[in-house]
């Protein structure tokens, strides 16, 4: 899952991004509304965590622009105000969910994951394919009943492949979904991660390389 965090309080923004990355999400961070619009124009995000009171371009206007462009990105709006009227207004603008500050990080994670599921065809909470069970919420992976410990990026790549339900996923798509914008597009990190993932999942191999196209399970 790829997430954009838009928050002008830099310490909070960076802390949220760090926490989301620990949950195997690819996260980009910006600190004002103008930068958010620039990122949204060039990158595909599953979820935007959007502070309402932003400099340069207000969060409300960022949300309106997402709706106007018909982008399938889901918006989780943050605000320091907990008034019901503010929450209603935010939802009427086009936000998909609303979370007042201060918030429990576990709730933020749950809401981001719930919104991320809405950007794709509905799938069961626990993904199962080729003897593999992947639970995104518990961050657990089992193969034939054996638990497998994965690094965050390995987990993210496996989740993308599992969600594709047998369709081929290109290296570019994996790079876009599992890494942030600071990753060198010419890096071999996808190939190396897939190799490590294959080794950890064991035999027989379930990740198939489709020459010239990508990978599938």
Automatic annotation (TrEMBL):
PROSITE patterns: OMPR_PHOB, RESPONSE_REGULATORY
Occurrences of domain OmpR/PhoB-type (ranges): 124-217
Domain Response regulatory residue range list: 2-116
InterPro entries: CheY-like_superfamily, OmpR/PhoB-type_DNA-bd, Sig_transdc_resp-reg_receiver, WalR-like, WH-like_DNA-bd_sf
SUPFAM superfamilies noted in UniProt: CheY-like
Residues recorded as bearing 4-aspartylphosphate in the entry: 51
Any one Gene Ontology molecular-function term assigned to this protein's record: DNA binding
DNA-binding region in chain numbering: 124-217
Keywords: DNA-binding, Phosphoprotein
Keyword Phosphoprotein among UniProt keywords: yes
One Pfam family it belongs to: Trans_reg_C
PANTHER family: REGULATOR OF RPOS, TRANSCRIPTIONAL REGULATORY PROTEIN CUTR
The protein's name: DNA-binding response OmpR family regulator
Native source species: Streptomyces demainii
């Amino acid at each position: 899952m790829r997430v954009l965090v838009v928050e002008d309080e830099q310490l909070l923004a960076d802390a949220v991004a760090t926490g989301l990355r620990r949950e195997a999400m690819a996260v980009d961070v910006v600190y004002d509304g103008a930068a958010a619009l620039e990122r949204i124009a060039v990158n595909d995000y599953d979820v935007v965590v959007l502070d309402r009171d932003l400099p340069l371009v207000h969060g409300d206007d960022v949300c309106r622009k997402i709706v106007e462009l018909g982008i399938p990105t889901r918006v989780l709006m943050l605000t320091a105000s907990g008034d019901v009227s503010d929450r209603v207004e935010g939802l009427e603008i086009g936000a998909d969910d609303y979370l007042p500050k201060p918030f429990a990080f576990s709730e933020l994670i749950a809401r981001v994951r719930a919104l991320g599921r809405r950007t794709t065809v509905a799938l069961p909470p626990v993904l199962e394919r080729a003897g593999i069970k992947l639970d995104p919420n518990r961050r657990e992976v089992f193969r034939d009943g054996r638990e497998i410990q994965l690094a965050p990026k390995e987990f993210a790549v496996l989740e993308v492949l599992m969600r594709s339900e047998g369709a081929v996923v290109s290296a570019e798509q994996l790079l876009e979904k599992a890494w942030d914008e600071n990753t060198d597009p010419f890096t071999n990190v996808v190939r190396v991660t897939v190799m490590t993932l294959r080794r950890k999942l064991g035999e027989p191999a379930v990740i198939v390389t489709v020459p010239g196209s990508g990978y599938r399970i």
